[in-house]
Amino acid sequence: MLYSIKIATRYLTANRGQSLLLVLGVAVGVYVYVFMSALIGGLAVLLTDRTVGSIAHVVVEPAERDPVSLIERDRGVLLAVLKSTQQRPTLQSAEAYLPILQGTPHVSVVVGKVLGNGFMLKGEAVAPVLVTGIDARDISAIADIEGSLVAGSTDLMLGTAVIGKGLADKLGIGIGQSITIRSERDIEQPVTVGGIFELGVSSVDDTAVYLNIRAARVLLDLPEGLSRYELKLDDLQLAREAAADIVNRTGLKATPWQDQNAQLLEGLTAQARSGDLIKGFALVTIIIGVASALLLSTYRRQSEIGIMRAMGARRSFVIFVFVLQGAFIGLAGGLLGAGLGYLSLMPFPPPEMTAGGGLPVDYRQGAYLSAIVLTLIGAIAAAIWPAWSASRVDPVKAIGP
Amino acid sequence: MSETGETRLVEVHGVTKEYAEGDNVTRVLKGVELQVDRGELVALLGPSGSGKSTLLNILGTLARPTDGQLAILGENLIGADDYVLTEFRNRHIGFVFQAHLLLPDFTALENVMFPAAARHGRERREDRERAAELLDRVGLSHRRDYLASRLSGGQKQRVAVARSLMNAPELVLADEPTGNLDRESADQVMELLTEINAVDKTGFLISTHDEKIAARCRRQVHMVDGKVADDGVK
Asked: What residues of A are in contact with residue B86 (Cβ under 8 Å)?
């Protein structure tokens, strides 16, 4: 065994109480680090899940059909481009794209939709609605309509509609009641309310009407093609890469969820930075604690350092003894803090399963390894100054009368 | 190496040592002249403040002289850096201090073994065996696994003597080695030192106030006011 390891461990075990307190202090710092990682990570998961859970991760639509400009835009020329309004933006050959989209890495769900605006009429009451025509099997593929049902069912037959609770309340309608929908193409269609759902997103709950896609085609005067494809990914953080891939392979317009939720991303980034700051403070506390304890040990063991130097121990040997003590404290405190963090965070359910009001800590995001590694590095760094000053001890002064 | 170099252990010429504190400069050694041959047993006598301990510190390469020449085993140590001095000290010089100065959290055996472990960076089996032999030689084999802090004063000093011999040095510097001991223990320690000197031919330079202790040494060097005042061989 390296003799410096023996001396370092002997020094630490010779004063068990003090060493234990020191390790506990480091462990508390590591625990804060782990807890903050789990909390910030959990909050991010919760917010993202709540926000992105009911929307598509990537939306694929027809490419912009702007006229081609013959003048370069960056030549200081003021250029006005008249948008094409000749045709509704529709994926005319939607079926051709389906295998490509399904074959894109990380894509787990592909749902084709026809979309249009309209009004829902009941007597004199009129409410603006967003009509979504969808294959009956896919109604819960993007937003969990099935799980959000408050009444009826999600069976989309030709004459039935599944509508948001806000809309139902606004018009005062319930399951089995007949209403009329008038589309933006001025086509009217009577439907029966077959289901009412509540996602908790008012913009959806107040306006959404789901129809069988065949009924929607008639209502929106869209006999073929789709308005868009909506995609879910197995890892929503890869939405940008997936969208870019789709653009390259299809030439269509693909929009990742991040582009439509810039404020959420900004909030998550700010939140992550705050967490990093707190974790940084925890690390600084660990470093100061270890440095001060070892510095104290240096002073207390000055005569022993003098003896070792007199017996021919090199300065590097003394440095190694004290740096090792820092490393042992860091490693022990890191393992203890990370272990306690893991054990105490384990009972918390994952944030995506957290009920309202629950603490959204995610034990999977405890950053245990980085906590241990950073603490080890920090403790070693903290030990360098005390170790250096120990190596500079003058043996004559240290062992003198 | 010359004939002198082969027999000469310590060669000190005009060594001075000054300590400055602000504007005050204290001259502790004022041109010490001293030569010690291999295997000599020398008593260094003198009143407190005469510079005995400072001279031992310089000879032990723990302190540097302000001026003068210092050679041990023919090696000029003036101007050598800390690494060289530390290595030299570890290989060629042993120490016995008045206050024994053992590592309290280590056993008697570990204390004895320390100079070898510091040299090799690890505990070797042969070092452990030699340390055990040395403890046996100083009559403490039954205390080898005792923590140093649990030993009596006389036992601690005997462990310190064993430690000083661990790397088989040519020179052992003993600063008042019996100063903290009762008469019986003091006699035992001196008996040990003289026996080691006689058997191993290890050179000893023993600083002491005690004329009885000094009387056991063949040569007595008297220091007064930072200089060698008298150097007599019995």
From this structure: 309, 312-315
